[in-house]
Amino acid sequence: MRDLVEIGMGRTARRTYELDDIDIVPSRRTRSSKEVSTAWQIDAYRFDIPVLAHPTDALVSPAFAIELGKAGGLGVINGEGLWGRHADVDAAIARLIEIAETDPDPNASVAYLQELHAAPLQPDLLAAAVAQVRDAGVTTAVRVSPQNARVLTPDLVRAGIDLLVIHGTIISAEHVAHGDDEPLNLKTFISELDVPVIAGGVSDHRTALHLMRTGAAGVIVGFGSTAGATTTSASLGIGVPMATAIADAAAARRDYLDETGGRYVHVIADGDIETSGDLAKAIACGADAAVLGAPLALAEEAPGRGWYWPSAAAHPSLPRGAVLQVEEFEDRAGLSRVLTGPSDDPYGSLNFVGGLRRAMAKSGYSDLKEFQKVGLSVRA
Question: How far is CA 127 from the centre of its chain?
């Protein structure tokens, strides 16, 4: 039964919870963290750690996607980002950071980011980026928006992607296009593809269930890291209470599993995950994996050189993110330390997978699906 609260005469709202509002409650025997598996599999692709990178140019270059893939995770290239628009992305990012560091106008870096994204997409550049990742032998994933999925996907499939990610702030099973353009019906679109699709984000049970019925292999919950994002506070007023949203999507997954007689759709959390404890709580709420944004900007392999911006920051008319520094250039850690340690930070910004493994071990669970059953409490 949903907890409804009256917020004014004749107007009610649902009481919801963020990851910060809940705690994991161990209730079984403990075990060694060495006896814990963090592996998961979506379609034919198996990953050793439940970590995807947010599809922003601040994080995912082809080289970064390769390193994250070798570490057992999944790097998602932004198919509408700089790697498909500019031959020298490193120079473009260097100029962006220079503006962020020196220009007194705090919006100048976003304006330059918009300018960079105004350049036309060049399919050959994007195909080259995909080929670089594919040739390294790791799973290759590219993100496209619902608006451009129909146009960009054929070239991406020919380039050899393994997974297609259709990703927007909030998406639905049918994207209504402008003017006379035919709406994007995801069920029809996905059924005609030879590659599995991850789609999102969503924030409630109904939309998650609708996306699962399109044939998506995975559904993204949320709209990204809170660092740098302005979707909730300023731009749209839309918020996703991640603990509640993940639990709702997990309930939709159970309903869809019963509806189809056994088809399992993965739930991927994308928001409010800033520490290893947040990652553990996202899995405990029902996620199979999670998207990391700003935390991965700490890695020295990230092309943003300690700066982070969400992919929505480059929107041409309503940017929903800022260019923020998350770490001094010379102080960044290697990607392996961010993911698996060792860590000297007691606040959970390093060794994300190690923190998850220990949370699972201290709760007595040996794999991710079991850990989704762990007890939870709500802070008063």
Answer: 22
Distance of alpha carbon 147 from alpha carbon 184, whole angstroms: 8
User: Is it true that the peptide bond before 84 is cis, omega within 30 degrees of 0?
Assistant: no
Q: Is the dihedral of CA 326, 201, 208, 64 positive or negative?
A: negative
Distance of alpha carbon 188 from alpha carbon 294, whole angstroms: 34
Is 284 within 8 Å of 24 (Cβ atoms)? yes
> Looking at beta carbons, which pairs linking 99-106 to residues 24 or more positions away fall under 8 Å?
100/307, 100/323, 100/325, 101/325, 106/322
- Vertex 155, ends 305 and 201: CA angle to 5°? 60
Burial of 253 (0-12, 13-18, 19+ CB in 10 A): buried
pTM over 0.85: yes
231 has a pLDDT exceeding 50 = no
C-alpha 227: how far from chain center: 13
β-strand partners of 166: 144, 199
Each residue's pLDDT tens digit, 201-230: 899 999 999 999 999 999 999 987 555 555
Other Cβ atoms closer than 10 A to 136:
15
- Asked if residue 127 lies in contact with residue 157, where contact means CB atoms within 8 angstroms, the answer is no
Residue 57: in which H helix or E strand, if any? Answer: none
CA distance 92 to 181: 33
- How far is 103 from 294, CA to CA, in rounded Å? 22
Residue in the structure block whose two tokens are 């929505």 = 312
Local structure of 266: helix, strand or coil: strand
Encoded tokens for 55: 């599809």
Residue 332, pLDDT > 90, answer no
Residue whose C-alpha is closest to residue 279's, from 2, 19, 4, 15 = 19
CA-CA distance, 298 to 296, in Å (whole number)? 5
* Count of other CB atoms within 10 angstroms of residue 257: 14
With beta carbons less than 8 A apart as the criterion, state whether 171 and 179 touch.
Answer: no
Read off the pLDDT of residues 253-290 as tens digits, 9 standing for 90 and up.
Answer: 999 999 999 999 999 999 889 999 999 999 999 999 99
Strand partners, 249: none
Q: How remote is the C-alpha of 358 from its chain's centroid? A: 23
CATH 2.60.40.290 fits 4-378, yes or no: no
The amino acid at residue 123 is P
Q: What type of residue sits at position 211?
A: L
